[in-house]
Amino acid sequence: MTNPAHEAAARALRDAYSKEPIPPMRQWLDPVDIAGAYAVQAINTRFWVEQGRRIVGRKAGLTAKAVQTQLGVDQPDFGVLFDDMMIPDGGTLDPARCLQPKAEAEIAFVLGADLPDPNTTAEMAGAAVATVHAALEIVDSRIADWKIAFADTVADNGSSAFYVLSKVGKPLDGLDIYSAGMVMEINGQIVSLGAGAAALGHPLNAAAWLASTLAQRGEPLKKGDVLLAGALGPMVTMTPGDHIRAIAGGIGEVQLNYGKA
After folding, report:
1. Is the pLDDT score of 71 beyond 70?
2. Exposed/middle/buried for 225, CB within 10 Å: 0-12, 13-18, 19+?
3. pLDDT digit string, tens, across residues 16-54
4. CB 62 within 8 A of CB 77
């Protein structure tokens, strides 16, 4: 049976995409109701799949202490990546598709094997990686003024919106993704700094946490899935006309134009 409060919350979030952000979801969800928040996320995931959107991977969120501090939370979360959320490297994102977007620089993986084990380790996750990419995630919130508690962002699909992967991926073997430095620039000015270690101590820790969590839920990561391992530094507000570029040491760089094509 569905919970009427969860259904109402899910509809309010869907409506916000095309209207305007809504207040924090206290009338439907307690700020720390993790199970309820993921139930709302699942309702909308099912709705969007029924509407024809295709799941292509998952994102781990709130993996960097800096971002947890920004949002006042103390644990990671996850959201679903759909095919229509991907923007080509160097492509353009129309501001009309966003509400209150922010950019994060990340390391991403494309999987070359399934990860069905609910006790996936970092080593197991690494063995399943086909390619490693520099990535930008454009996060957005359907909650007004980003006044989110943990339940708000989880219900809101991890505050997800869009993502960009570097055109060329590299094999994991030989890469130092733990100490890889990250620089994110907007219009040539440095706006965020970080390193691979920010993602739960190592990007493969984030991958293992995500793989284990999803396997426990009966939704394991599969070959070909995209996995965003979480921000390596603070997220930064975007303004129409911005050119955003992120460089991950040894991995590559990725770019996005935020404005009308």
Report:
1. no
2. buried
3. 999 999 999 999 999 889 899 999 999 999 999 999 999
4. yes
Question: How many Å apart are CA 88 and CA 126, to the nearest integer?
Answer: 25
pLDDT tens digits along 204-223: 999 999 999 999 999 999 99
Q: Could you tell me which residues come within 8 angstroms of residue 35 by beta carbon, excluding any fewer than 6 positions away?
A: none
Cα–Cα distance between 55 and 255 in angstroms, integer? Answer: 23
DSSP codes of every residue in 137-202:
EEE--SBGGG---HHHHHHTGGG--EEEE-SS-B-STT--TTT-EEEEEETTEEEEEEEGGGTTTS
The torsion region of residue 52 among left (phi > 0), alpha (psi -120 to 50) and beta comes to: left
Q: What share of the chain is helix, strand, coil (3-state, %, to 5)?
A: 30, 30, 40
Q: Please write the tens of the pLDDT for every residue from 124-152.
A: 999 999 999 999 999 999 999 999 989 99
Structure tokens at 66: 């800096």
Integer Cα distance of 10 and 160 in angstroms: 15
**Nearest residue to 76 (alpha-carbon basis) of 202, 209, 180:** 209
